[in-house]
Amino acid sequence: MDWLNLLALLWLIAGNTTLWVAYVNRTHALPLTCGTLHRLRRVHDVMIILVPLLLIVGLGLTGPKLLLGGSWAKLTPFWWAFVGVCLLGGMQLVFVTIRNILQRAPEQLIDKQSETIDIADKLGAKPVEPGKYYRLAMLPMNEQFEVEFNQKTFQLESLPAELDGLSILHISDWHFMGTLSQSYFKQVSDLLAQEPVDIVCFTGDLIDSMKCVEWIPETLGKLKGKYGNFFILGNHDWYQDPDVIREAVSKIGWVNVASETVELEIDHAILQIGGDETPWMGTSPEFSEIAHFRLLLCHTPDNLQSARDSHVDLMLSGHNHGGQVQLPLVGPVYSPSRFGTQYASGIFWEAPTLLHISRGLSGRHPLRYHCRPEVTRIVLKAVEVSPEKPHEPGVD
Ligand SMILES: [Fe+2]
User: Where would I find the Calcineurin-like phosphoesterase domain in this sequence (predicted)?
Assistant: First the structure.
């Protein structure tokens, strides 16, 4: 056995896998039907098994017999082209790993408090129903039930002094399907309802099975922001029946902001809230000049450039679930985005927009490793505050 060549072949296999994962991530960012996405994913499933077999058999054991003492000089032009493509994938893997290691929260994040609550412990059992993906939910060390209750304080130059201290509950991607039982979502909602908040925002992917629409009043219906609750839908709602889902959420008093904007006047400052469900539904909202602060609810973070063009101050997104499984050093792997894993979750400052991407609370697949579900209370701090509302000492 030529161990050095074995390592080289393993590297090529990793590069090939990286390329097919990139293909799945990019195609799943498109507004395609479930059936089409399923078929595209099958190509990925076949190729990440077939190509390694080809490399081991075609290069390692036959042809140039690299695993049996053969030489790279015997590779045909076809194999050199094949190896070249895999090497490109390997370089991409190195790039993604370095980017993940170097990633830091922007300076606008001035404080973060976090508490992890094991919902299964609180309920006395894992809140799972028999059915699709039941076994995934029951896997050992699965973090699906360990919910992170975060509080993140952002200081923004563009925040008017009148809005200093404004709190926003950002929740996303609850994916009611039936595998995770209603008690899981009720428990999280009950815990969230204990903490007063100014505004509640939901950024899409509520329903994965229409039979769960009836859960809405007992879950989202428990939450109440001082200035209101606002929502948009996501691609998974689009796969179901978005009109019925939208009506059910509106019925409990939430304001649908999809493709439009609403204005709130708070202490004479106008906060404008818009919603963007593109590329699956509607259009991007048009913000007006009268707004002192622009808040955008946008399911996918892929629309960041459009938000920046609209001078959005704070953009809230979900969709990518943090990848749900994050590998050591490499970070997230699967993220249905035009940018791959770059915006899987986290906080990003791309002037003039601060982007907060939630890892969401659930997903079609109830599986999480190194990527806990999250709910986040955002507190906004102004750089300059009015004399009536001085900064709390010690916070800045
Ligand atoms: Fe989602």
Answer: 167-321
